Amino acid sequence: MIRSERTPWRTAGFHLTALSVSLIFAVPVIWVLAASLRLPGAPPPTDLELLPDPIIWSNYVQIFELLPLGRYLLNSFAVAALAVPLTVVVASWAGFALAQVPEHVRAAFLALAIVVRMTPITALWLTRFLVLNELRLIDSYAALLAPVWLGSSPLFVLIFYWSFRRIPADVIESARLDGLGALAIWRRIALPLARPAIGAVSVLTFVQYWSDFINPLLYLKSESRYTLPIGLRLLQQMDMTSWPLLMAGVMVMIAPIMILFVLAQRAFWVEVRS
Amino acid sequence: MHIPTRYRLSLYLLLTPFLAGITLLVVIPAGLSFALAFMSYDALSPPVWRGVQNYRHLLADDLFRRAVVNSLTFLALTVPLRTLITLGLALLLRRPRRGIRLYRAAVYMPTVIPGVAYALIWLWILNPVYGPLNLVLGALNLPTAAWLVDPRTALPALALAALFQIGEGFVVLLAGLQHIPDDYYDAAALDGAGRMALFRHVTLPLLAPWLFLVIIRDIIASAQNTFTPALLMTGGGPYYATLFLPLLIYQTAFDRFRFGEGAAMTTLLFAGVGGLIMLVWRISGGWGYDDSV
Amino acid sequence: MTLTCRYGLFALFVVVLVACAAPSLAPARAITFMVSGDAAEKAAYERLVAAFRERHPTIQVTLIHIPGQSDYRKRLGIDFAAGTPADIVLINYRRYAAFAARGVLEPLGPYLAQSAVISTDDFYPEAMNPFIWQGVIMCLPQNLSSLVVYYNRDLFRAAGLPDPSPDWTWNDMLEAAQRLTRDTNGDGVVDQYGLGTEVSLFRVAPFIWQNGGDVVDDPQTPTRLTLDTPAAREAIQWFVDLQVKHHVAPDAVAEAAENSESRFLNGRLGMFLNSRRGVPTYRTITDFDWDVAPLPRGKQRAGILHADAYCMAQVSKQKEAAWTFIEFANSVEGQRIIAATGRTVPSLRAVAGSPVFLDPQTRPANSRVFLDGIAFIRAVPVMETWVDIEDMVAEELKRAYYGQASVDDVIETAITRTRPFFTRRDR
User: Fold this and answer.
1) Considering only CA atoms, which of B292, B293, B11 is closest in space to residue A172?
2) Are C149 and C163 in contact (CB under 8 A)?
């Protein structure tokens, strides 16, 4: 059978291809790291050097002095951390309910979820801004966290739905007959069985809010509330051609995500398993 | 299974935050957008009814036309390329073997990089004098370009940057490939089918629904993914070469405070995306998109 | 001591304490003040706010700083739209019309008339005039700068050039720029340019005026751009040729690699065109000596007005407190503080003529240049849609400047595209 023909040549060919591809995808991060360690103000080298000489670690300190980047970092972290439990609750509630409501209701909601997923955000910005403006939520984290109301993304609702669908109906039936309400069943029976889903949604939610640029751009006014993406843009505007500092800022922003990516691989492959 | 009313009610109650969110954040803004498109509004004075004037003005506006052309061009460049690349990578990395985790992770990695960081990284990579791309091209004796600075190469440069964040599609296609039972391949191989034939007659048809999903998602994504790169890397220039519809909407609404005009653009964008999806659906014959969702 | 005695003493102690603390318990009025600019400019306003706090401890001023110019514009708009603008905002005369027209600014004329500290006559009329909206003074200008040439004296010396003379010509500047454009390390690539400038209508206008042309047909009620007159065309061609023909300014690629202002700060640019705005940042330069020269003259002299003003939001809940700050900022004392940081060419005659601005020991030593230019200063039209017009023309000019289109092409397109904006009513 063709599939299992793994000659040494084939294997070598595979690894060569896969390795080259991986390098192309991963190498930019290394370039950024190298660029962030150069001396700001000096013209960058016009030849490809991997490690600059001298290595300027102080760039990472300087960006925190130029801007209150530490405060922005904390703000980003606070928003993302707050979003996680809120999202898990709303999304898992919705998923839990969807797994049990009658077929036609479920179909309607799923269709709605898909339509929402398909709507480009750009179609909603403008008027969403006006709505939140009327509600006097501008310049508050409530505006940034507003998406948790729809579970941050219909995808998360779907993830929980798939997860809860696997729970045998009689388990829920007997719990109900024991007198437990929906909320109690959700908390005591469904959630503990959905650990992988919770893990995945938590990680993906954190990444989503950590990376969020457009919402802080539109809704935040007070400097003390800015998040990291805005901070990075400010850094860019303060000195557009000071690449080392800018790249240092970029590294600061992607470092937690990289760490999460390495530690919580499984979360990102969630769709494969569903 | 009989569900008592009280329990059913509590289930619906659990759905209310989600419903409230959708209403407040999607339904109302969408409806408002549609309505606002017929008015002139600057958020300082009350809206003024303008009928279809906004639409008429837009269709005659050269900036709007430019933005539409740019957005369509970007779509035409990125969607097919991304699909091909994603398909190729999914096929390459479908079978578990040594190192597969690492390779898959490397392919996925650019996708998790936050938009702002990704845009700035590429701004650096595409720098015509100091950026690694031109340095590498120069070292290999290949032609270099001014990329973001030249109106002819600016849009292709942004398209290039968009080719690397394919993680989501990659995951979907991997899942799709896993769903193809091996017996199909065995049977076809017994009939004497070569690799190309296997691909064309087994893989492709069975992968079709998943491919379809990926393409649709990409079309929708391209209606919003151009915003951050265009804003941070080129500001819409040089000379409107990278002025995409989302950026134009943002500038019209939040720079010039012409919310009515912005809303009109938004509805046209929405209609355009919807139309494209319908088109793809038609062309693909509505390839059994599996509703086992 | 008996118990009652002790309590009595304690009570007395508390009363005395409260009595002494009473003045600082007076209610503080809080106002916000929004500015834009880079770090050095921010520091300038921080000084002003600190000085004000000493004078008026019961008024608390919070400074809001927005680094980017276009972000500042957006922020202004969003704030006014949300109904929560800062009490005091700095707005440029080219941009304030849209806000004045919508009635979101509180006219400062009446406050000025009643002020015991400053009066209309104290200000340069050239600075005040653009801010008179329908007969009323809307905002108080803090400065009136013109466009000048910042030059790197060390590079001039090294190239054997004398300092620019007060009436040097276009040709003189071009020749100097040519001498200053060099490949310093012999690698075949120019790394020191003679001249750098932002490419915009705002930079080109003074050259058009100097050549006898004009930007619009009627400065009071403009209906179209007049960039196609021979005089204007010639001036634009000369400006564009600096890059396209003589290559004394960085091309698109070089500008993207390192922008002109950055080059000047790092000692790699001979001359940079800018207003007074750049001074606080340039004062951080330690590696070389720099100064300012007037714009070279064409057929006649002309300068272009740069003016920002303090404006008060109409919805402000602390108008009295806000006016107190605006009055302080535009009093001799307040303007001295900002002038000391180098940020402004003071709009108060008294301060502009004083050593705090003219002292040759502080850079630029030749600050007199700014005052001498006031006689020739002209303003661009004040219109609601001027921002759109400027942006469009800038895009067109850049095309010509970077060699992607001819000047005739660009002028024609600019006039056609901007035509609707002269008659447009947004409401």
Assistant:
1) B11
2) no
Does B20 map to a domain?
no
Shortest distance, CA A86 to any CA of chain C (angstroms): 27
User: Which residues in chain C are contacts of A41 at CB distance < 8 A?
Assistant: 266
Span B64-116, pLDDT tens digits: 999 999 999 999 999 999 999 999 999 988 888 888 888 998 999 999 999 99
In angstroms, rounded to a whole number, what is the distance separating the alpha carbons of residues B223 and B71? 8
Q: How far apart are CA C172 and CA C48, in angstroms?
A: 40
Count of domains for chain B: 1
> Closest residue of A to C189, CA-based?
A46
Closest CA to C199 of C36, C399, C372, C48: C399
Three-state secondary structure call for residue C200: coil
Interior CA angle at A59 toward A208 and C75, to 5°?
50
B3 in a domain, yes or no? Answer: no
Domain that holds residue B262: 32-284
Which residues lie closer than 8 Å to C405 by C-beta, 6 or more apart?
Answer: C396, C399
- Chain-chain contact of C258 with A43 (C-beta, under 8 angstroms): yes
The interface predicted TM-score (ipTM) is 0.87
Q: Closest approach of chain C CAs to the CA of B234, in angstroms?
A: 10
CB contact under 8 A, C426 and B239: no
Domain CATH for B104: 1.10.3720.10
What residues in A contact B117, CB-CB < 8 Å? 211, 232, 250, 253-254
pTM: 0.88
In a domain, B192, yes or no: yes
Optimal mutation site among B133, B247, B255, interface C, most CBs of chain C within 10 A: B255
For A95-151, the pLDDT digits (tens) are 998 888 888 888 888 888 878 877 877 778 888 888 888 888 888 888 888 888 887
Cβ separation C254–B129 shorter than 8 A:
yes
Q: Which residues have a Cβ under 8 Å from the Cβ of A273 and sit 6 or more positions away?
A: B175
Type of residue numbered C152: N
Whether B25 is covered by a domain: the verdict is no
